[in-house]
Write a structure and sequence with these properties.
Layout lengths: L5 E17 L2 H4 L6 E13 L4 E9 L3 H11 L11 H11 L8 H21 L3 H5 L5 E6 L9 H13 L4 E5 L5 H15 L5 E4 L6 H11 L6 E3 L7 H10 L4 E3 L6 H9 L5 E2 L3 H4 L2 H13 L3 E2 L5 H8 L7 E4 L13 E2 L2 E3 L12 H5 L1 E8 L2
Parallel strand pairs: 4-5, 4-11, 5-6, 6-7, 7-8, 8-9, 9-10
Antiparallel strand pairs: 1-2, 1-14, 2-3, 4-13, 12-13
Length: 375
């Protein structure tokens, strides 16, 4: 195929309203307000040969407008470039915004471009992204989180857990970290008894315990045969997480809040987790996520990416050892396609690229858009 070049780049800021306000432990400790929406940054890329790519990043509670603004400042640098040269192009965009650094918000803005370029490359090859990258499996274990938030009563959490299992989802994660530790234990016990001993069960404290509480709660939770305890401590407390990982039988999982490969590298080098949970949009896209996968595999860590299952399903399928993907139905209105779950696993779609297209509803929720080049 002759050389191609990017002729058009479009950015959209889309605000997704949640059906119900969501509360985790950060709300109950007074650090955040309930979450009512998620703001997405979508990047669409088209080439002279009429190849198309779609990518996205996102922000919860704050940062969405800033991601959009930063992406709009650097996007024009892609026009006329060869879309196959993903690493070079992302480096070019990094230098265009070098004064704001290579982590955090700036990195998350570039993630939308990176994902779109990979989506385009896989579509050009006629392959699902997982197949383009080199899959180890055609399905990935999946667990549900969206039904386990603290704003829901225990009965509601149990009902949602049963519904998820009936829909072919393989595990259940619920939120903990309430000011009353006994209430956390009551909810975990109730869910465990409801779903049975054989169903994988995870808990997530969303960084709200101190070191003493995390150790005490971790020891009390050992009897529930948990698949992991997630974010028991502040995301940047490498030493504290490492102590827990050495002390507890239950695996420790963390990493979702980190916003660069370098931050994850400190986590890995410090022995701070048994299961690492990177988020591709947060660390800069697929290019950076692949670097993290190599580091994690070298240290023998398990992998369970955070959120954005539409992207992470493909990446998790490429990890050498069995992984988990987090099932959220929140994003369903944004896309025309649905991911399928069966027998506890999420199936890699056979559609080229990520296998998703933006819905008319996503277009209707667009609050801002800008384009560069020729449509």
């Amino acid at each position: 195929m002759p050389a191609d070049s990017i002729r058009w780049v479009s950015l959209s800021s889309v605000t997704l309203p949640l059906r119900n306000a969501i509360s985790d432990a950060k709300v109950f400790t007074g650090r955040q307000k309930p979450m009512t929406e998620v703001v997405f940054l979508f990047a669409e890329i088209a080439t002279e040969q009429d190849q198309h790519g779609l990518g996205f990043s996102y922000s919860k509670r704050a940062g969405g407008p800033a991601q959009y603004a930063h992406a709009a400042e650097v996007a024009e640098g892609l026009i006329g470039e060869d879309p196959n040269d993903i690493g070079r192009l992302i480096t070019k965009l990094q230098w265009a915004g070098a004064s704001v650094g290579r982590s955090g918000l700036a990195t998350q803005a570039l993630a939308a471009f990176d994902v779109a370029l990979y989506d385009l490359k896989a579509k050009r090859a006629g392959l699902p992204l997982a197949k383009l990258l080199g899959a180890h499996r055609d399905s990935v274990r999946t667990y549900n989180t969206s039904g386990g938030f603290l704003n829901a009563s225990l009965e509601e959490v149990k009902e949602q857990a049963a519904r998820s299992l009936d829909e072919g989802i393989g595990g259940i994660k619920i939120k903990v970290g309430l000011p009353d530790n006994t209430e956390d234990l009551r909810r975990v016990r109730g869910v465990r008894e409801h779903i049975g001993e054989d169903v994988p069960l995870m808990v997530d404290a969303n960084q709200q315990w101190d070191r003493t509480t995390a150790l005490r709660m971790g020891q009390r939770l050992e009897g529930f045969d948990l698949t992991w305890i997630e974010e028991p401590l502040d995301a940047y407390d490498v030493e504290g997480h490492a102590r827990l990982a050495r002390t507890l039988v239950t695996p420790v999982a963390t990493g979702e809040m980190l916003a660069s490969v370098a931050e994850h590298e400190r986590l890995i080098d410090g022995g701070a987790c048994d299961i690492i949970q990177p988020d591709a949009p947060r660390v800069g896209g697929i290019t950076q996520f692949l670097r993290l996968m190599t580091l994690a595999d070298q240290r023998g860590l398990d992998l369970a990416p955070h959120f954005a299952m539409e992207i992470h399903l493909h990446l998790a399928a490429c990890y050498p050892r069995e992984t988990w993907v987090e099932h959220f139905d929140w994003l369903d209105p944004l896309f025309n396609e649905r991911l399928e779950t069966k027998d506890g696993r999420m199936l890699v779609p056979d559609r080229p690229g990520l296998g998703i297209t933006l819905s008319e509803q996503a277009r209707a929720w667009t609050t801002g858009s800008v384009s560069f080049g020729k449509r």
